[in-house]
Amino acid sequence: MNKGLIGILCVMLAALIIVGCVPVARYYVCPDGKQVMKPEDCAPVQPEPEEKEVITEPVVEEEEPVAPVEPVEKEFTEATQNLFNKFDKVTSIKYSYVESPAILPENIYYTSKDLMKIVLKTKVKFSDKESYDTVYLDLIQKKGEAYCENRDRQTCPDRDKPYTIDYNKYFVETPFDWMSKLTWANLTGKSKTIESRNAIELSFEINGEAGTMFVDSYFSTPLYISFEGNTYEFRDISMNELQSTDLTHQFGQ
């Protein structure tokens, strides 16, 4: 072996022995990232300030006071009031309804102050097995539903199936509504016969708007009304002949 090569190898071996004997410095990494020889050389850790819970008081908005609704003062002559007192005894009414511009009566209405039943002259049909011919309205809650009540099972396979309807589509103001709206009234001294009933004419106002109507002389129920360019007729009318069950759907019938 070449003596020169042997010498180089001996030098390298000696260097490795020297490096192996040199101690390796060990460092400690502090929480803040700083390297130190001993842990105690780290800077003391400052405790984070404790977060305090902030309680926010709810903001209460003051409601504006609602002005009380002033009752509408009604002005009726003594003779008119005596006639209207008869209407206080009316609890239910059955009629067909005609409103101008002239239309023929299509439905039959059964109503109290709170409920209304409408028997449709033409039923509403969705399919061969789905249709309705009778509408029920809750006049207080202003909502309603419909049923197919024809006793022919071919026409109404399920007489107890409810259908959702548009309340405003079917609602019409009842004689009870018209009488409650009057703010002034006076007898004109005129009368005539309407469908075999003696009808008394009176002038009236609703919030300053004038109109005329004929009411039944026995029950004081409106039969014919002319108001704001329109006429409203309650035909084939009868009073106090309905039972309580006549205004609600009878299930299982």
Distance between the termini: 123 Å
What is the approximate shape? elongated
Integer average pLDDT? 85
Strand content: 35-45%
Count the DSSP helices: 4
* Strand arrangement across the biggest beta sheet: 3-10-11-12-13-14-4-5-6-7-8-9
Report the major sheet: 12 strands, mixed
Task: Describe the overall structure.
The chain has 253 residues and is of the alpha+beta class. The chain is 15% helix and 36% strand. The protein has helices at residues 3-21, 78-84, 167-170, 175-181, and strands spanning 28-29, 35-36, 75-76, 93-99, 107-111, 115-127, 130-138, 143-147, 163-164, 184-194, 197-206, 209-216, 222-227, 230-239. The chain is elongated. The mean pLDDT is 85.
What's the layout of helices and strands?
Blueprint: H1 3-21, E1 28-29, E2 35-36, E3 75-76, H2 78-84, E4 93-99, E5 107-111, E6 115-127, E7 130-138, E8 143-147, E9 163-164, H3 167-170, H4 175-181, E10 184-194, E11 197-206, E12 209-216, E13 222-227, E14 230-239
Parallel strand pairs: 3-10
Antiparallel strand pairs: 1-2, 4-5, 4-14, 5-6, 6-7, 7-8, 8-9, 10-11, 11-12, 12-13, 13-14
